[in-house]
């Protein structure tokens, strides 16, 4: 088994989905939190793109959270059982990324990372982004029929979306009231034993 | 993984508007892989009806024996990985993916300027160039040059062409064409695009393409 080191800030953010994928895969890894103080040096000397998260596999680095997720997932049967399923896992992940690029205009204000009128940003960015994206996810869950997004077992995109949903729901009360299937999916994913255990211990 | 003979090759249809945009990279990968495909151009008039038949209300969409795959990178990776164009090892494949996503991040910033160049949306072109175009360029392209130099083969990853080479070459050549001189400080990037566009199957596609 290679030696895995995972580097990110000691927050959930873009690090949480990769960590949960390791947990679900049952793969040991060193979970390294880089503090704000250490980041400036680490960024310049250690990172290929000046960003985190970063995965180190026997000393060789892989940047970019989705590349990391897919790399671990595909080595442990968590990236779809066929090339077609894998393409759908990728497509849903990229669709989520497109959603988040819009949604974060509201979410960063809601979290206090950026200035702005929360209600105004919610109306202009938060709600439209939600109502453009999540109906697609509900449809996918219904069409797929297993309670999960693709195929009959959990894939890395289930983890990605469940984490995003739980994070949003924690910070924007009632935001998914009209999307019970989304909450059901999030709860299903987070009750998978290895993920449940990770969440309880983090 | 079983070998696929010509007689069991799936029927591919790629649906997009009749422009390059997000369709060009999937088309070039199909061409590079020597895969026959129907290149379907959806007109503005046809789009509202076709939209409801797509998984996410967007294009490009790849249809494989009637089953659809949305999202341009998912399509690119799907075709590429079945034809040896997605890296030779899982580690290489991860770097192909990482570079593709880094390009996407760059483009999310850069398009705030580039869409104005192409005539989409309204705004002050010079201001957008200063605020979005130049900073995005100078944050991203040094990483590309670094990757090309450290990889040392003329390709971005490994010793042969991958789908991310096709992505970058299309992106950089388009920018260089629409904003003359914009990449002059990055000759390695322009050289890379030339190298990729000289690959016979890609050269042939570019010469014959309708747009």
TrEMBL record, chain A:
InterPro entries: Glutathione-S-Trfase_C-like, Glutathione-S-Trfase_C_sf, Glutathione_S-Trfase, Glutathione_S-Trfase_N, GST_C, GST_superfamily, Thioredoxin-like_sf
Domain of life: Eukaryota
Single GO molecular function: glutathione transferase activity
GO biological process, one term: glutathione metabolic process
Chain ranges of the GST N-terminal domain: 2-80
Domain GST C-terminal span(s) in chain numbering: 82-202
Name the record gives this protein: Glutathione S-transferase
Organism in which the protein naturally occurs: Pristionchus fissidentatus
Automatic annotation (TrEMBL), chain B:
InterPro entries, A to Z: Glutathione-S-Trfase_C-like, Glutathione-S-Trfase_C_sf, Glutathione_S-Trfase, Glutathione_S-Trfase_N, GST_C, GST_superfamily, Thioredoxin-like_sf
Swiss-Prot/TrEMBL GO biological process terms: glutathione metabolic process
Cross-referenced PROSITE patterns: GST_CTER, GST_NTER
One GO MF term: glutathione transferase activity
SUPFAM superfamilies named among the record's database cross-references: GST C-terminal domain-like, Thioredoxin-like
The GST C-terminal domain, residue ranges: 89-211
GST N-terminal domain sequence ranges: 10-87
Name of the molecule in the record: Glutathione S-transferase
Cited Pfam families: GST_C_3 (PF14497), GST_N (PF02798)
Gene3D superfamilies per UniProt: 1.20.1050.10, Glutaredoxin
């Amino acid at each position: 088994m290679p030696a895995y080191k995972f580097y990110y800030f000691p927050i959930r953010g873009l690090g949480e989905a990769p960590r949960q994928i390791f947990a679900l895969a049952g793969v040991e890894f060193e979970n390294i939190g880089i503090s704000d103080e250490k980041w400036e040096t680490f960024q310049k000397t250690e990172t290929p793109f000046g960003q985190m998260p970063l995965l180190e596999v026997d000393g060789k680095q892989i940047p970019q959270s989705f590349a990391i997720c897919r790399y671990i997932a595909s080595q442990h049967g968590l990236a779809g059982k066929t090339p077609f399923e894998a393409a759908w896992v990728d497509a849903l992940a990229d669709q989520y990324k497109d959603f988040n690029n819009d949604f974060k205009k509201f979410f960063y204000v809601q979290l206090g990372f950026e200035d702005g009128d929360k209600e105004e940003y919610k109306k202009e960015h938060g709600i439209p982004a939600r109502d453009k994206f999540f109906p697609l996810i509900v449809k996918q869950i219904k069409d797929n029929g297993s309670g999960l997004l693709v195929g009959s077992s959990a894939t890395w995109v289930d983890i990605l979306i469940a984490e995003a949903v739980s994070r949003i729901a924690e910070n924007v009360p009632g935001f998914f009231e009209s999307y019970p299937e989304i909450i059901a999916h999030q709860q299903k994913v987070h009750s998978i034993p290895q993920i449940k255990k990770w969440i309880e211990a983090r | 993984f079983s070998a696929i003979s010509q007689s069991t090759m799936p029927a591919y249809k790629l649906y997009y508007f009749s422009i390059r945009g997000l369709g060009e990279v999937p088309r070039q990968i199909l061409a590079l892989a020597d895969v026959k495909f129907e290149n379907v151009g959806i007109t503005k008039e046809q789009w509202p009806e076709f939209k409801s038949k797509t998984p996410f209300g967007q294009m490009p969409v790849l249809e494989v024996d009637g089953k659809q795959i949305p999202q341009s990178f998912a399509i690119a990776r799907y075709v590429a990985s079945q034809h040896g164009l997605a890296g030779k090892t899982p580690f290489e494949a991860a770097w192909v993916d990482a570079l593709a996503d880094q390009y996407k991040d760059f483009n999310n910033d850069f398009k705030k300027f580039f869409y104005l160049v192409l005539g989409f949306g309204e705004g002050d072109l010079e201001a957008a160039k200063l605020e979005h175009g130049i900073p995005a360029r100078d944050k991203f392209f040094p990483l590309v040059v670094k990757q090309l130099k450290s990889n040392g083969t003329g390709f971005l990853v490994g010793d042969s062409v991958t789908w991310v080479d096709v992505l970058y070459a299309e992106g950089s050549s388009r920018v260089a064409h629409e904003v003359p001189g914009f990449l002059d400080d990055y000759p390695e990037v322009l050289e890379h695009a030339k190298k990729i566009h000289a690959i016979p199957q890609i050269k042939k596609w570019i010469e014959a393409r309708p747009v």
